[in-house]
Amino acid sequence: MKKLAVIFTLVGAIASQGSAAHAALIANWNFNTLSIATASTPGSGGVPTTLAASSGSGTLNLAGYLGTVDDFGGTTINAVGADPAEESLSLVAGTNFPGNGTPVDFSFSTLGLEDVVLTYAHQRTATGYTTNAWSFSTDGGGSFTPVVTNVLPAAATTFAAVGVVSVDFSAFPAIENKSSVIVRFVGTGATAAAGNNRLDNVQFNATPAVPEPATLSLAGLSLIAAVATRRRG
Ligand SMILES: [Ca+2]
Ligand SMILES: [Ca+2]
User: Superkingdom of this entry's organism (predicted)?
Assistant: First the structure.
């Protein structure tokens, strides 16, 4: 009777271990290392063309963005841990608004992961990008699958008014368990050179893929067998 209780406890522990797969951070960018005197194009004036993730593992690629970038004040909304607000990724439309329709790409791995979710803080000026779309590629940028065509409400001129923006990729299993994915942001509809959108605390989280049931029960059985053997000895 005692042995049976031990086995049931073990089975319970194994089962809960399988289902308690919490979302894990893939990568986040708080943009707090940006130091840009005046809005400039990527690769000039202190604007990098690539920016490594603040924590986790990933790369932001600004090379295809044709507007200018500045480092206007950020927010603690959606910050990881105690990250301070400091700077944001400020995407400025530029003279004649060349930023319209040009990409900002986030690259990372989803190996062993499923249910990818993007969260971040976002605000725009009245003349900034009114339409803010996200898509993804798993073939190195050859083709992109649209996920959402516009994430922002009409009144979006402060981070607080917008709150945390969430883009759920869980309906797109094609993005899961890939060594290299690109998630792309594109803004359109900017109508002034100084029009801009700020992004801050961009986080990609995902859930570790649950092991196959066969593997799980086999592991559970060996553990029970090991305990039973030890108790007999
Ligand atoms: Ca920040
Ligand atoms: Ca600045």
Answer: Bacteria
